[in-house]
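#struct-pred
JK: can someone run the complex with fe (ii) ion? inputs below
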Amino acid sequence: MKPLELSSISEIWKSALQMLSHNLSSGGSDPQLWFQWGKIWRGHDSNGILPSTEFPTNLQEAKALRFAGRTWTSVKHEEMIWLISIKPETVPGFESPDWEIPTTVIPTLKMLSEFVKMECLLGLTLKILENRAGEHSGHWDRVRNLSLAIGKKMGLSGKRFIELELTALLHDIGKVALPPSILEVSRSLSPLERRQVESHSVIGAGMIREIPGMESVAECVLSHHESPDKSGYPKGLPLEDIPLISLIVGAADSFDAMTHFRPYAAERTYQETLEEMVGQTGKYDDRVLWALKEVLKDLGILEIKPVSFSEL
Ligand SMILES: [Fe+2]
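RT: done, structure tokens with the ligand placed:
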């Protein structure tokens, strides 16, 4: 299963690594923190995510073991095995044989364990969505990344940034409740079929609302197809009643669909797609479109044509 990395928890990784650094004064520097995901180990250092890799199985029992120029120690916490590696001191003769995991780090590892489990469950949920609802692989990941970039440009942070990421990942989760036959229709939908498909935002919001603490995300999922000109669904809300997060995810979702799922649009540039969205007066929020344009400018891809599936 593809690992799902939540950018929202990068601060927790950072604080765990900082805590390790503070306790390494006599043992080494540059700590890395790894956990196992299937056969692959997933790690972070102070600069962020490290490339996933396979390690020799004896590292799982490591106690100050030297490997690849670093010192490795494993920590078992509940059912998870963590690996902490440090760059040893270069003092001649110093082998840091007795280096122990600082006990102050254990609560943070415990918290990270809970988040990792949540990431696995989210990854599993999105895999089900991909298989059950014919969701294109990679769509939700691109919508998540684009939504976060737009949100950052608009100054979202903290709790709202986490809600933005979860909304972007789960916005179409209600599609798992629809019959596959209706999601595979390639002709235009009948009014009844359209109403059925459109019910996915209400169904998804209902599923998420049952999770304690996720009420705001549920509201944002409910409104991800609402439009400032009141032409959206399910309620036809006016701009002032649509959560900003819904407007961001709705625009990112449309942009990705317009640049990846329409074979006849494969020759258009991102610039042309953006212009089409700007031209649909009232369908998208002006602030979001401004931020989207800034993100594309920053990435330097405004004039680049999107890759079509036939080229993959
Ligand atoms: Fe949707």
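RT: quick notes.
The longest helix spans residues 106-133.
The mean pLDDT is 85.
JK: thanks, will look after standup
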